[in-house]
Amino acid sequence: MGHPLLYSAQVLWVLWCAYPARAGVVEDFNHMERCKDSLYMGTPPRGYLTANLKKICQRYEDKPRYVTLYDPRKHIPVYSAYTFKKSDGEKHLASEKGGNNMEPFPQTQMHMNFEDTQAVLEDYSDVVKYERGHLNPDEHQGDPLDKAATYTLTNIVPQIREFNTGPWSDQEGRVRKRLNNYCRGTAYVVTGTTTSGNMIRRDNIDRVAIPEYMWTAYCCTEFDHNAPYSVRYKFPVFGAYALNDHVNNHLVEVPIKNLERFLKGKLDVDRNFQIFYRDCVPDF
């Protein structure tokens, strides 16, 4: 869902500068302590071929919260991967401790330097038809600090307003209720985008890629085997995708293999593309 946005100046500053990272780009998600905890079996989606994608360990209040693969040319995240936390769905726009990490981006020359590699708030300021949509939504987090950590532009993509508040919002709520009620262990979620070349322009320059499709998948290997069949067959893993548009934006829920097959036709990935390690099939 799109909301008035606060985001981490510290994350963005470290992200593109050669300072020791308390947050920012890493060579591998295993590089930072607990960064890999956001990934099923500590393993990110595999098979992406596009060069120069940046692995980001998203931190808030000096703690890793989730991970993002970011495209510095298109200025949007490719995906965010996180662990779902049981939640009542209440939105939380800022932490009481928000002054430490989360704050409006500083209006300095440093601010301008980021524009080559990352979206900035100005890119969204005069855009009427799009909202800032989260990949890791705050309603999938229970702790106020985890919620606050989702409010960063590296976790944001432009979504058509009617899509963001309609089918995509409905799916976020549907998954939240399903995992709240029937997942008994840790649920891992990966939510991402595909693009087709359409861009938000500012000052006659292409600035931010507009997702063509949004997609998402969850993995929960410990679940309620007594759940109704209409729910039970969607465990331990299931996915969904939808067109980011005003019309024809009906969300389709599909088995993980179907989702991967669909995405292979939309993403620059190899034939071994896989969202979850071994497609979320647990070892017994």
Oligomer: single chain
Classify the helix fraction into a percent range: 10-25%
Q: How would you spell out the order of helices and strands?
A: HEEEEEHHEHEHHEEHEEHE
CA gyration radius, whole angstroms: 18 Å
**Overall morphology:** globular
Strand content: 25-35%
Number of strands: 12
The largest sheet is:
8 strands, antiparallel
Structural class: alpha+beta
Mean pLDDT: 83
Organism: Synaphobranchus kaupii (Kaup's arrowtooth eel)
Signal peptide: 1-23
Keywords: Signal
InterPro entries: DNA/RNA_non-sp_Endonuclease_sf, Endo_G_ENPP1-like_dom, ENDOD1, ENPP1-3/EXOG-like_nuc-like, His-Me_finger_sf
Summarize the structure.
The chain is α+β, with helices and mostly antiparallel strands and 284 residues long. 20% of the residues lie in helices and 31% in strands. The protein has 8 helices and 12 strands.
Give the topology:
Blueprint: H1 9-15, E1 24-26, E2 46-48, E3 54-60, E4 63-71, E5 76-84, H2 109-113, H3 122-125, E6 130-134, H4 144-149, E7 156-160, H5 161-165, H6 167-182, E8 187-202, E9 205-219, H7 229-232, E10 237-243, E11 252-254, H8 256-264, E12 269-274
Antiparallel strand pairs: 1-3, 2-12, 3-4, 4-5, 5-8, 6-7, 8-9, 9-10, 10-11
Describe the structure.
The protein has 284 residues and is an alpha+beta fold. 20% of the residues lie in helices and 31% in strands. The strands form three sheets. Strands 1-3-4-5-8-9-10-11 form an eight-stranded antiparallel beta sheet. The protein has a two-stranded antiparallel ribbon with strand order 2-12. The chain has a two-stranded antiparallel sheet with strand order 6-7. Strand 3 and strand 4 form a beta hairpin. The chain is globular. The relative contact order is 0.16. The N terminus is likely disordered.
